[in-house]
């Protein structure tokens, strides 16, 4: 992994605190968030997390509800009572959903239920940061005659709206946000389907093929923009004349 080397620009210098006791989830978040350019600090216990959140400055806290010592509600409550306005996104298990209302009244900004895909969490993060006024626009990406809008989840080719599925849109949006970067099938699977998706990577090829078919139907040379990188995966290669060609970076 070379996460430190490939930072997204729009999130540069943003610090995220992850308070989560499950190491696999922490690692999943660390990889994804670093990739998006966030600085990630993590705590695996409630008390140490609360201490970090109180003593250091963060742009966002991702807070697991069930922690071994001090739970997410208590942490949230204490932070708000202490005057902290740092946005908080709570992670909860599906069976804990009825606690949603309690979580939000404790001052969390949003919540995401496990299992979740990274793109789902990222969308919430961006929405929360935008609501808090810290987010740059960046909701519309236009390249190679294709426009994707992260707010409306719509993709257009000129005036024509492409009828993409959620998965197809997520793949296109992800690759267009990182042009020329090569995404392995494993990365796409992790990012779009979630870290605990039980299927194999063939599903990625199937959805890429559907996406290309829809792009072709809209008049885009799909194989030119969504390139297969043999033995590695896929990359979005802009065809705009002003985009200088350069070697793809590989995750
Ligand atoms: Ca937990």
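-> sequence recovered:
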């Amino acid at each position: 992994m070379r996460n430190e080397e490939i930072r997204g620009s729009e999130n540069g210098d943003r610090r995220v605190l992850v308070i989560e006791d499950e190491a696999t989830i922490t690692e999943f978040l660390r990889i994804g968030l670093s990739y998006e350019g966030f600085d990630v600090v993590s705590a695996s216990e409630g008390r140490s997390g609360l201490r970090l959140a109180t003593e250091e400055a963060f742009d966002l806290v991702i807070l697991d509800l069930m922690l071994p010592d001090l739970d997410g509600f208590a942490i949230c409550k204490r932070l708000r009572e202490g005057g902290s306005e740092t946005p908080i996104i709570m992670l909860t298990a599906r069976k804990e959903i009825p606690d949603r209302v309690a979580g939000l009244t404790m001052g969390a900004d949003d919540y995401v239920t496990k299992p979740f895909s990274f793109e789902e969490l990222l969308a919430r993060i961006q929405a929360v940061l935008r609501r808090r006024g810290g987010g740059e626009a960046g909701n519309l990406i236009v390249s190679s005659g294709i426009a994707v809008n992260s707010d409306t989840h719509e993709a257009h080719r000129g005036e024509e709206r492409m009828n993409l599925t959620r998965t197809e849109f997520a793949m296109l949006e992800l690759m267009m946000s990182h042009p020329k970067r090569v995404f392995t099938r494993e990365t796409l699977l992790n990012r779009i389907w979630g870290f605990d998706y039980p299927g194999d990577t063939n599903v990625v090829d199937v959805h890429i093929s559907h996406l290309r078919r829809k792009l072709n139907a809209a008049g885009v040379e799909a194989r030119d923009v969504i390139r297969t990188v043999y033995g590695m995966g896929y990359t979005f290669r802009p065809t705009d004349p002003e985009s200088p060609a350069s070697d793809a970076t590989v995750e």
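The chain has two domains: 6-131, 140-236.
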